[in-house]
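We treat protein structure as text, and this decision shapes the records that our systems exchange. The tokens are whole numbers drawn from a learned vocabulary of local backbone shapes. One such record is reproduced below, unchanged from the form in which we store it:
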Amino acid sequence: MKLRRFRADFVFIEGHTGIGIAEYSPQWTSGETIAIWSLHYPRKISNKDAFVDILKTIDGELADDEQAIVQMNKYSERKNWHKPFIERVNVRFLTRVRGQMQEAELLAEDAAQRKTDIYERLETE
């Protein structure tokens, strides 16, 4: 089973929602970003809808033999929003203290302000 690694965040700015997702190389320590999603919603959606849309986006990217780890700051296991995805997507809480969420947060802010979507798979050697 291949394991893919992501960090994700969402923001609400002036009635718009932005979602940011960054996929990283299989080794966390390299810190290499290999894909980005910067998704815009023309209205403020609920925290649940933003969370579920993040997991749907990631789940949709996975091949049959893949699973994902998603690190998020806006996540509460008690709400069970992750349950429909639990077989393929493992969500983990990540604190903002060390700036590890910065890339996903900036992608989310950019989407809400730009008001368009961006997806890009970055070249890797």
User: Anything to note?
Assistant: The longest strand covers residues 2-13. The chain has a mean pLDDT of 89. The two ends are 22 Å apart (CA to CA). The longest helix spans residues 47-61.
